Structures are given as structure tokens and as C-alpha cells.
What does this fold into?
Amino acid sequence: MTTRIVELRRGILKKNDELAADLRASYTAAGVLVLNLVSSPGTGKTAFLERTLTELRKRGAKVAALVGDLETDNDARRLAASGAPVRQINTHGICHLDAEMIGRHIDGWEGVALAGLDYLFIENVGNLVCPSSYDLGEKIRVALLSVTEGEDKPLKYPTLFNSADAAVITKIDISEPCGFDRELALRNINEIRPGIRIFETSAKTGAGMEEWLAYLAEARVALAL
Amino acid sequence: MHELSLVTSIVETVTETMTAYPGARVKEVRLRVGALASVIPESLEFCYGIASEGTPLEGSKLVVNVLPVVVHCEPCGLDSELAGVQSFRCPQCGELCAEIRQGRELEIEDIEIDEAEVTA
It folds into this structure.
């Protein structure tokens, strides 16, 4: 017997990373800005996205959304009320979306072509752990946190917040009854992801949405450069 | 967590590699896992025993080397290891560091195999 060391140096998620790279190239070629929304269940991703889609459509933007959920299509139906094309991805127990699921649902999407879109939003499965490992080829990963969740969420889930490009605080209309410590939350987010853009929003009142929409518009302009 | 699917991917990759070494036996599979990879080593090891059954990896050992986060500090110009993942401040000067130089790795580094002697 002889012992030998075989060097592999291979990413465990290489397959996903390769598919994500292909997706990224196709998004770029189509000129569409793709965002991946990640948060716990109940943070208000769907309400935030509903408002975002509605406001963007009012401004004449062409938008669409892919929405991940374990079993139901409730979120897709809610989002479709905005008038934007929405496609449900049921993961049937899988705790995150991966690049293969995204590719498959873009390919077979009747009436929707990437090249005809300005923005594509991907609403991930509600989970603060697993989605951080799976690249979907997105340009911007958005981590959401609601005022009901506790200001230390970013410290508890540093991997997710550290991999985000923007952070959104939701439900600020009820921050007072929740005893939400705004300064502490902002500090915690910044401690985990220094310099990240943070938006303080309410899908209900529309607070903070203008700033968020301006950020999206800037990101789209940057994409074309 | 998705440790089982990670382990399944490891088993597939190593099994594929082993086709180039007929008759050889896998002794050890070594991983490099960053502290920010959100992977629990014990959970990987537990799944490994199950996922490697009936494959060329059966009976081998999984070694998970956890890599600390290394940040780059702009003002200091230094790369430093962080003791944890609760704060991304330079240990030298206390400045917040946005640039991560290490800590997101999730890869198979190498494998140790026993090759049968070739008899002419």
C-alpha cells in the first residue's frame, strides 16, 4: 500500500456557483437588474415587494418576481395583484432557493423574457441561514429585518447580513409599540456589514420607499455603464 | 441547515475523483470551511457517515478545518484574523472593515488515499 494525497481544491457548491455565473451573464446580457430578498419568515418580504412592484410599475418600469416558498402559492397571488408577472417556486421542504431552480423557472416562464425586463426580484424562502450560501447570480442581495424581530438579529445571523449588499428595516410604522431601538439596530447592522446601505421602511405607510426606489434606479443606471 | 446536501456533493466529487485511482481506498477527506460559511462541522461529520455508506468513501474520515475570518483594514493596510463573527473591526486599530479576505470558503482541500501496489 502507498499513501497518496490528491489535491482537489474544489468548491463544495461548485455546481451552484457555475450555474449562478451563467445566470449572472444572462442577466447582464439582458440588461435586467436582479435582486435577491432574504429574511426570516414573517419579516414582511412579500408586503415590501408588493409595494415595490406597484411603485415601480407606476413609474413605467418593467418588473417581474420569482417567489420561493415551501408549499403554498399565497405569496405569488398577493404579488400578482400588483399587475407584474410573478412565478411561484415551491421548494417542497428545501430551505433555500438555488441557481438551478431559478434557471428552470426563468426558462419556462410563459410571456416573460429577461430582455424585456428592467428589474427582476427574487423573494427567497424565509430563512436566515441557508440562503446565504447559494448564489443566484443576483446583482444585489437584500437582507430584511423587521422592528418586531429584535435589534440583535444581525449579530445572531452574521453570515447572512455580512453577505448582503443592502439592508431594509421593515414595519417601522409599529416601531414604537415594539420598543424598537433604532440606533442599536443600525449599529448592529453596521458592525456586521460596515458601510452597507440601510433603508428604513414601512410597506403600509410608504415611509422610506422613495429612498429605496431611488437606490434601485441608481443601481440600474450603474448596470448600464 | 443543508449539511446533508453539502455532504452528498462531497461524496459525488470524491467518487468521481477516485475513478482515476482504481483499487485505491479513501482514508481521509479534508475540507476548508470559513467561519462565515454557516456550516456546523459536527453536523457535516454526522451526515458524512450516512452519505458515504456504500460508496468508495465508506469508512474514511472527514476532517473539517475551520478558517477564521480575515479582514483587510484600509487605514492600517493590514490583514488580521478576527476572534469571532460578531464584529468586523480591525483588532489593531478598531476600525470597521468592509473587506473580507478569508472566511467564506467551503471547499474540499484534498483527499488521502491508499493505493494498491501495482504488481507486474
The longest helix of chain A spans residues 14-30.
